[in-house]
Amino acid sequence: MVGAGALLAGPILPNAREKDPAMPPSPSPRWWTFGLLNVAVIAVVSLSGWYLLADPRTSPLGIYPLPFNTALFWALMFVVWLGFNLEMSWFSRLPQPLCGIAFTAATIGGGVAVTWLLSRGLGSVNPDFDPSGPLGVSAYFVAALFVLFGFSTYIMSVVNWGQWPVAGAMTGQPYVGLGSIALLMVPTILLWAVLGIPAVAHPESAVMGVPTLLGWYYSLIIAIVLTGVVGENWPWRLAGTGARLALAATAGNVVLGTVLYVGLREVAHLLVGSTNAAALGAGINLYPAELGVCWVVWMILWANVFGNKPVGLGDAASLAIRAVVTFALACGTFVAYYFVLAEHVLHEPAIAHTSLAGDALGFMDWVALVALLYIVGFGSWGLHAPSADQPTEALPVDHPTAHAAGQN
């Protein structure tokens, strides 16, 4: 999920583009060359890590799909907290690649630790979290669902709200980040308790079933990333700042996300084919999230390593073109994954009674994690960024989230 996320256009860290003044200048790549090189590195690392950690055939760990996905989702949550709410405090002072190594260790270590604490600690007193209890391994999924709601609250806080209201009451990091993390823990836990936990552990009393919950709520996250990252918080920033901006962004993303859910479900139906859609039944309601995670991955990449092109065409036109390009890439990725990659490359099991295989919310979230660790943590270490005359897209100075894109 996406998640992940946690995603800002433009330069992410001051040290992400460090240059040694003693070294002679090298030719600057074009923006698309830099982007493709990042994609190549991320693809190689993602596949290598998958074969080692999760692949049902090649990994010695035997943790696919759970608890691997739970630790993965929580690692993404730590990326959001440490990389964006806290703006890389404690890490950005380190030189590369030490910064990236420390950031990777903290996020993955945090994800594994929380997975263990929820399953073995909380699970010892609450059977909903106990993988040896009545829910079996599904208890890991109960623990993972916190991250679904955390993506909406914490990412929206950064990319849409500018970390309001904490940013207005406190100055500097890590105080703003810690304050936002603490404040938003309350609504996140409430959403998890009301919508998430019952959907898996107590379906008879749930507001909605798991496929519908994941499909709809992930669509809200897509709306947050689309407007807050790809659209640089347009049109919500037209509402002003502070509470007005937060209210406009929250209400707007709920409405836009709901519209996206309906539309993406129809697109997913078309992409998987009518026979597969019929076999999935109500499970097709999940597929806005499955298609959406592919879209979010491409929006992360487009905003951060492809320069969020085009620029200079106006807010609406730029957002429309970026949305179309990234969505087209997402559709191609979705089809390639479900019909080819999942079964034949990643060795994931087939989905019963269909010609599909795998679960994009697992592997594509793994790709999102690798992408964020490399781009945010390592600052695309080893690659030469475009020069100033071929800039990547940066947030305007007066943008409500500009402070999160280039400060320690």
UniProtKB/TrEMBL annotation:
Where does the chain cross the membrane?
31-54, 66-86, 98-119, 139-162, 174-195, 215-233, 245-264, 284-307, 319-340, 360-383
Domain of life assignment: Bacteria
Keyword Kinase listed? The answer is: no
List the keywords (alphabetical).
Membrane, Transmembrane, Transmembrane helix
What's the protein called, per UniProt? AAT family amino acid transporter
Organism lineage reads as: Bacteria, Bacillati, Actinomycetota, Actinomycetes, Propionibacteriales
